[in-house]
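Please describe the entry underneath.
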Amino acid sequence: MTSLKRSPIQEDIKIIPAKAEDDNVLKWLREREPEHFLLKVESFSVLSESEIEKYESDEFEAAGYKWRLILYPKGDKKRNGSNHISLYLSLSDTKGLPQGWEAKVHFSLFVYNNISDKYLTIQVPKTSIVSRTLFGRPNLHTLKAGHQLANYNKHEECDRLVGDASSRRFHGLKRERGFAQLLPLDYFKDISNGYLFDDTCVFGAEVFVTKSAANRQCLSMMKETKNRIFTWKVEHFSTIKEDIFYSNKFKIGDLQWKLQLFPKGNANSKGKSLSLYLEVADELTSRANWKVYAEYTLRIRNQVSSNHIESDGTCLPLS
């Protein structure tokens, strides 16, 4: 087994500017294990020399969502990650999420360092870039106004200051975020740096989702669909005893509907005429303040002649 020599420079926390998808990132070492997921890769050299461009981990659950880690062992060339390790967090299951969903996510990705027995933590910072000397006293580069970093001489205090990840929005068009240039590949493979040992490495993830207090509304317009006619044949009409009678559910567009029939009339028409209504029978009715605007025609067919009875509705809010 190959032995590892402990390097003095890796005894301390290092915070290193780098480039992510769209921002500067923080890289620093911490002792605490990632809370939500660890991915151990054995025989990394076999993976990196294979035809596999990327590896998707199993699903893991965090903050009420399901995620995967996406690893590019030779780098994500499409996002300028050639000759680097590329690592991303991917939201894997969005089927149960409402239309127009988005999640405000604070996440950190990790690589285990065997020499320091700590985890290289990679995140997009809220604060600006900070570094520390080997002697434990921090050097100030830039920081948000109001912080006097000279007062933070203890490691844990400085860690708390810089360890707060900025949030990134995940939504239908952006389900994957992370770092195309996580670590240079040559640096990663160099055993003296401690990230690859016995051809094995460990990656990790922590994920926290902030619930927004903002009120949201989504307006979705649908073009006229091809299959937009539903025919309901009511048999044995004279034997119906119920005050209200429903059709089976039917789908037009993206929504489920049904018809309401009042054989003896409803409201002001009770006892005078037959009443017929269109009703939304979709799961969206369980949401607060939902609305559907529909243009429709209700028709009672004359089975002898073409003198049908029709009633049109235009942009009627059904809620």
